[in-house]
């Protein structure tokens, strides 16, 4: 038995030993709770089904999780309230970390260490501000970065990058269709305001704008290893852009514009891209600038520009009260304030100077690692993470979906790179074995 096969079987056995007893105990409790909590029974059945599927195909749950990462709707079952995206990511993480091929490549290991640096830096605020919410958010932040990377890695490393990203892009396309249809209806009714989509679930304009910006970057980058149709991806790109414009998400437009510049200008020997998209960036920037100018000139103290300035001033005062370790992760919960609309100030108020140092190491380190990858795989990974970082200079950062999705895409790119390298190495070995056989056959016909 080969070592990879043996390692895979050992990881499967470990999964059964770790998950089996809790599952059995959960089924017993679920049986006792059948009359009062039917959703609990359904959840327990899904856990058992997921375990069986993972043992047959380790990548099944990570692949299924890719489109579900975009679902921001809340799940309330058995007193637990969390986003569907977080729930799916947490479930998919375990088969991904236990059953995905090892070892991790150096870039992925570096990214996980960078996540560990940030988690260590924010651990000080968890100790300084002890609470259940603070502790839960600490694990949540780890899951959104490191957990998403591992889930994405499992999808790409098992050879399902095309399927996983296709499901993700397909789901984003549905959100774009819903946004555009609702936006057209608003325009027909004479309503020129931003679109807050209600189908398939209610979404904030900046949320749907950010998600569609991710989709637009994936569609426009269209790495050659995805083997996607140019016509289809261009259609998705323009549809996503229309959705962003109708939602009037200025932060998403700025992030998308910066990412398009990177994708267009970076050299990739495997893909030649037209520079015509660069002419699109200029009107987008002018559109955003005109919207901001109109808000400033209106004198309305309750529009988005003046509200953000007010929130930033309040956040600055919050940080001054505890500059070293901050007020605690998600200190604004319970009506204590408003989540600061800037990534660095958000971390500064939450975890102080110590946490901000860890955050800067994480963000800058991630960009450096992804930039150094082979452009065939690294351009998409770098650009989609860059969208989030740029967008968060004018909006919230630590938010479900908007953090996990770009890191999951980056993980898929890393996994796809390793899978393609392994396949090419196998093809070379096969060709080398066939060459002596052919030579021998020629000498001894």
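^ structure tokens above, recovered residues below v
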């Amino acid at each position: 038995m080969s070592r990879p096969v043996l390692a895979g079987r050992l990881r499967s056995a470990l999964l059964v030993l770790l998950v089996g007893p809790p599952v059995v105990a959960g089924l017993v409790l679920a049986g006792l709770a059948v009359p009062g909590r039917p959703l609990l029974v359904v959840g327990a059945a899904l856990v058992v089904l997921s375990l069986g599927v993972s043992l047959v195909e380790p990548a099944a749950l990570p692949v299924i999780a890719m489109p579900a990462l975009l679902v921001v709707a809340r799940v309330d079952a058995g007193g637990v309230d969390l986003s569907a995206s977080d729930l799916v990511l947490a479930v998919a993480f375990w088969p991904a970390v236990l059953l995905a091929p090892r070892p991790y490549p150096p870039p992925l290991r570096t990214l996980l260490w960078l996540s560990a640096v940030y988690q260590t830096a924010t651990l000080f605020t968890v100790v300084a501000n002890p609470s259940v919410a603070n502790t839960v958010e600490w694990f949540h932040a780890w899951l959104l970065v490191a957990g998403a990377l591992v889930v994405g890695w499992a999808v790409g490393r098992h050879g399902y990058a095309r399927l996983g990203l296709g499901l993700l892009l397909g789901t984003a396309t549905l959100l774009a269709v819903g946004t555009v249809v609702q936006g057209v209806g608003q325009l027909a009714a004479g309503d020129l305001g931003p679109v807050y989509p209600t189908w398939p679930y209610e979404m904030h304009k900046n949320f749907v704008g950010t998600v569609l910006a991710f989709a637009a970057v994936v569609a426009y980058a269209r790495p050659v290893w995805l083997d996607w149709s140019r016509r289809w991806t261009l259609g998705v790109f323009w549809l996503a852009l229309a959705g962003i414009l109708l939602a009037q998400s200025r932060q998403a437009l700025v992030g998308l514009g910066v990412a398009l510049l990177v994708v267009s200008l970076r050299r990739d020997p495997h893909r030649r891209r037209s520079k015509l998209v660069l002419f699109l960036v200029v009107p987008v920037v002018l559109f955003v600038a005109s919207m901001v100018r109109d808000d400033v000139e209106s004198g309305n103290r309750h529009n988005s520009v003046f509200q953000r300035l007010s929130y930033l001033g309040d956040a600055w005062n919050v940080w001054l009260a505890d500059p070293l370790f901050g007020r605690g992760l998600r200190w604004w919960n319970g009506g204590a304030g408003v989540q600061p609309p800037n990534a660095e100030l958000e971390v500064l108020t939450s975890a102080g100077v110590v946490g901000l140092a860890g955050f800067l190491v994480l963000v800058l380190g991630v960009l450096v690692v992804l930039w150094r990858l082979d452009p065939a795989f690294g351009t998409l990974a770098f650009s989609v993470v860059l969208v989030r970082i740029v967008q968060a200079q004018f909006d919230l950062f630590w938010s479900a979906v908007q953090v996990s999705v770009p890191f999951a895409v980056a993980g898929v790119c890393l996994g796809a790179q390793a899978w393609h390298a392994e396949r090419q190495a196998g093809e070379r070995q096969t060709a080398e074995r066939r060459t002596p056989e052919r030579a021998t056959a020629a000498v001894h016909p």
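Residues 104-432 form one domain.
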